[in-house]
Write the structure tokens for this entry.
Amino acid sequence: MSGERRKNRPNIERTLGSISFFSDLDAESLGQIAAVSRSGVWPEGTFLFHRDDEGDHMVALTAGRVRLSIGTPHGRELVICHLSPGDVVGELAVIDGRPRSADAFAIERSTGIVIDRSDFLRIARERADVPLAVARHLSELLRNTNYQMESIALYDLRLRVIRFFLFSIRQTHGDILPGRALIPSGLNQAELSAVLGASRPKVNRVLQDLVAEGALTREGTQTYCNAQHLRRLAESDSHRDWP
């Protein structure tokens, strides 16, 4: 271990311990992963990696925002999700050894902790709690994917918007919803439209309706939501018969 890496190890270990993917690891496993980790920086507008790249590392984000998407040769793009500090990106290719399944693009300057695949797999073979942490993480990803598929396939746009906001709030605050929550900063209407699979004018009309109903509040460039109000709307709208 280099002197600089040894000096930064306690900070890296604390940061990793605060990230869901690593939070249940015991101190020995967390220390071993921190010892082989390094810092990474990606300026705004750059790619962390491209689809089909070799998956030789993963990144635990500590600052910034990253967009995961899949593009076509004709220029169309499907936005899978937006990742923020505390999320992990690139872990699937590290786990299964296959090429990257999506593009990872830094929407704003982003930093993270980089863990090479060879080091992670070696530690996973030695430490039984690491594979269990991976299994929990993959289970959570599957649950989130099911939620997103349900929202897009089964509900109208208004309810998709409401469910998206509730999903974002729960990612930050857990199952106990706060009375008032800030919508993730930097998520503009174009990006929201791409995530929800709808045109920007249609999404804007839904947002305006939610503001008029008091479910959303705009203060300057920031948007807050009344989480309990959104949940009531989600419950009532789910029982409506949509044409």
